[in-house]
Amino acid sequence: MTYLLALDQGTSSSRSIVFNAQGHVVSMAQREFAQIYPQPGWVEHDPHEIWATQLATAREALAKAGLQGRDIAALGITNQRETTLLWNRRTGEPVHNAIVWQDRRAEPTCAALRDAGLEPLVRERTGLVIDAYFSATKIQWMLDHVPGAREAAERGELAFGTVDTWLVWQLTGGRLHVTDVTNASRTMLFDIHRNEWDDELLAALRIPRSLLPQVHPSAHLYGETLPEWLGAAVNIGGIAGDQQSALFGQTCFRPGLAKNTYGTGCFLLMHTGSHAELSRNGLITTSAAQTTPTREYAQEGSVFIGGAVVQWLRDGLRAIKASSEVERLAESVPDSGGVMFVPAFTGLGAPYWKPQATGTIVGLTRGSGAAHIARAALESIAYQSAALLQAMSRDVQAAGGVPVTELRVDGGACVNNLLMQFQADLLGIPVVRPKVIETTALGAAYLAGLACGVYHSLDELAALWQVERRFLPTMPRGRAEELMHRWEKAVRQATLD
Ligand code: G3P
Q1: Going by DSSP bridges, is the β-strand pair 72-79/3-9 parallel, antiparallel, or unpaired?
Q2: Does residue 86 fall inside a structural domain?
Q3: What parts of the sequence cross the membrane (predicted)?
Q4: What is the DSSP annotation of 152-170?
Q5: How many angstroms does the Cα of residue 100 sit away from the middle of ligand 1?
Q6: 146, 149, 45, 164: which is closest to 88 by C-alpha?
Q7: Which of 45, 153, 239, 332 has its CA 20 to 30 A from that of 326?
């Protein structure tokens, strides 16, 4: 039997999954780790804990499967993107905690960059908008605030990495300082057209080039792990940021194929082929996983608060005791009774990009109860995703591209049938849930499998993808449009526009 190991380092937990060559889950292990909130709007992770939990889950997943490192053809890494680490190349010691993608501390730097007129250059080279979400201004913050960091960086003593880079550094005992195109494309320092770090942006952001890792395609024989970690040296054959990895795991290899991942946030990505389309509707352009040096691109929209709204119902409002209760509570009423909930707890991401927006509930009446709010909260996940797909459709139409005809879904909240049906109703296209919903990890395993010869073509992978359930739209289009209209109105209230 052939096995592949995926290391899935996410925002709230580290997970490892062993897959067989058919793409089925053989075993899985997961560990949560601490979220550090030094002050409002700041989010950090301890780099040592990231590595320790990741290694522990890899060992546990192997043990559960009754396997050892030598039984693994290759491992693939997929990771929370943008989260930024800086460490000393000689000692391996981080100079600061990892600054997490959700962290907003670099917003003033971003405002200054916008004021300096850098937006067109950033958009054209990186496909991104200037936002504290991406790595570049987090690096800058560390260089400017950690005593001695800038001087050490200028002497070439420090290394920058996203989480994939940090894990490979650990796995190889500091021998490799690498990343893949998908992770590089989230730094705001990478020219996605040339697949190279961009000197002009580095200069504008005052970031020394010596900090940066080498960039490779996502499926690539990066090197081997030290034998001591998993009992044998294991090939590292794949790296991809988690959303691009999920796009790959959903076998969205052609223009017009799209997936939405329903996690803490929601991430909707559509493959656009070998052409980097720049959005006119608030989306970003990003590198899709590349299996050869040939460029591949996707359009992306990110919703910052997706499934996290259910956590707020549980921990903030205390309307439910466990997240799993939300579907039952929401189903206890036929609809939200006119309540609209815009969960802009950390501003609004694509397609609105309103960092100052705040959470807003509108349409309350004497008849509104916890069930209506729960339903509106759940529906807000679908509304935000529908707004993203509408923006994508407008871009596709303007460019004469291939429209999205179905949406493939994954992530924790895709098991919620009420949400998936409402999503299909709003979109007016089928929402398709595959049999294996661990598509983020699966994508990394597939990339590793391609690099080490377990798989030989993308067609072979596409043939492994299987549907579990297809949600067909049943709501009249007029009603869906009216609801979207009301949603946009509620968004305007949340942003005070
Ligand atoms: O861009 C952030 C994204 O990669 C985080 O994903 O699944 O760790 O919340 P997740």
Answers
A1: parallel
A2: yes
A3: none
A4: HHHTT-EEEE-HHHHHHHH
A5: 10
A6: 149
A7: 45
Give the residue whose CA is nearest to atom 1 of ligand 1: 81
Mutate to test the pocket of ligand 1, among 7, 9, 11, 14 (most ligand atoms within 8 A of CB): 11
Tell me how far apart the alpha carbons of residues 387 and 135 are, in angstroms, rounded to a whole number: 26
pLDDT tens-digit profile of 383-412?
999 999 999 988 888 888 888 889 999 998
From 133, 267, 303, 410, the mutation candidate for ligand 1 (largest count of ligand atoms within 8 A of CB) is 267
- For ligand 1, mutation pick of 50, 77, 79, 80 (most atoms within 8 Å of CB): 80
- Cα(207)–Cα(91) distance, integer angstroms: 21
Does any domain span residue 478?
no
What's the structural domain count of the chain?
1
**Domain range spanning residue 216?**
3-243
Give the SS3 label for residue 370. helix
Q: pLDDT (tens digit, 9 = 90+) per residue, 279-291?
A: 888 899 999 999 9
In angstroms, the CA 137 to CA 152 distance is: 18
- Is 175 a domain residue? yes
ipTM topping 0.90: yes
Going from the C-alpha of 67 to that of each of 57, 64, 73, 452, the distances in angstroms are 13, 8, 12, 19
Residue 160 located in a structural domain = yes
Distance, in Å, from the CA atom of 115 to the CA atom of 278, rounded to the nearest integer, reads 21
Say how far residue 325 (Cα) sits from the centre of its chain: 26
Residue 345 contacts residue 359 (beta carbons within 8 Å): yes
Which residues does 275 contact at the CB level (< 8 Å), separation at least 6? 297
How do residues 265-280 score in pLDDT, each as one tens digit?
Answer: 899 999 999 988 788 8
pTM: 0.92
**Contact by Cβ (8 Å): 424, 473:** yes
Q: 131 in ligand 1 pocket by Cβ < 6 Å?
A: no
Q: Is 242 in the pocket of ligand 1 (CB under 6 A)?
A: yes
Q: Tell me, using a 6 A CB cutoff, whether residue 135 lines ligand 1.
A: no
CA distance 208 to 127: 22
Q: Which of 413, 433, 434, 431 is nearest to 422 (CA)?
A: 431
Q: Are strands 284-287 and 297-303 parallel, antiparallel or unpaired?
A: antiparallel
* Dist. CA 29–CA 52, nearest whole Å: 13
CATH of the domain at 63: 3.30.420.40
